[in-house]
Design a protein that fits this description.
- The protein is α/β, with parallel strands linked by helices.
- The chain folds into two domains: 1-40, no CATH class; 53-146, Rossmann fold (3-Layer(aba) Sandwich).
- Helix content is 29%, strand content 27%.
- The chain has helices at 17-29, 42-47, 66-76, 98-101, 104-109, 141-146, and strands at 10-14, 35-39, 55-60, 77-87, 112-119, 123-129.
- The chain has a four-stranded mixed sheet with strand order 3-4-6-5.
- The chain is globular.
Length: 156
């Protein structure tokens, strides 16, 4: 994305020092001056005041279950910002029905409005933040895992 869109400032985030060291090296070698690499837990990063509601987009290769990805991302996005998540193939839990993995009622609780699934193997869930989430979102990772916003069996 950075090579195709040099007008964008990108922040690459991962909690693994080994992975972010690799990313930093790649960014240097490719001379991508508009890319920042951060080593941090996503939920910790999203709770920092300096990062709340500051991003136009979040792109995820699904770093967790949909409920976790939605809760972390809602805090990072500005109103109107979009979350784009790579969906698993249909034979591995993906679904052509948007509400199966992404129940709209639960997504509304953290500010997401529009939801669309684009593409077909690969497919991507695209969610638009319509209102800022409550100040207590996201919770710490362990809390989100123990009590997710929604579960795998819920539908709208």
């Amino acid at each position: 994305m950075a090579a195709e869109r040099p007008d964008l400032h990108l922040t690459l985030l991962d909690r693994s020092q080994k992975r972010t060291d690799f990313l930093r090296q790649a960014v240097r070698e490719l001379e991508l001056t508009q890319v920042e690499v951060v080593t941090s837990d996503a939920s910790d990063f999203a709770r920092e005041a300096a990062h709340r509601a500051t991003f136009d987009g979040v792109v995820s290769r699904s770093f967790g279950a949909p409920a976790l990805v939605a809760e972390v991302s809602c805090a990072l996005l500005r109103t109107g910002g979009r979350l784009v998540v790579s969906e698993p193939p249909q034979d591995q839990g993906g679904s052509a029905e948007p509400g199966v993995r992404w129940p709209r009622d639960a997504l509304h609780l953290v500010g997401f409005g529009d939801l669309a699934i684009r593409g077909n193997n690969p497919s991507f869930a695209i969610l638009t933040l319509t209102t800022l989430p409550p100040a207590d979102r996201p919770r710490r990772w362990a809390q989100m895992v123990k009590r997710p916003l929604f579960g795998p069996d819920e539908v709208d």
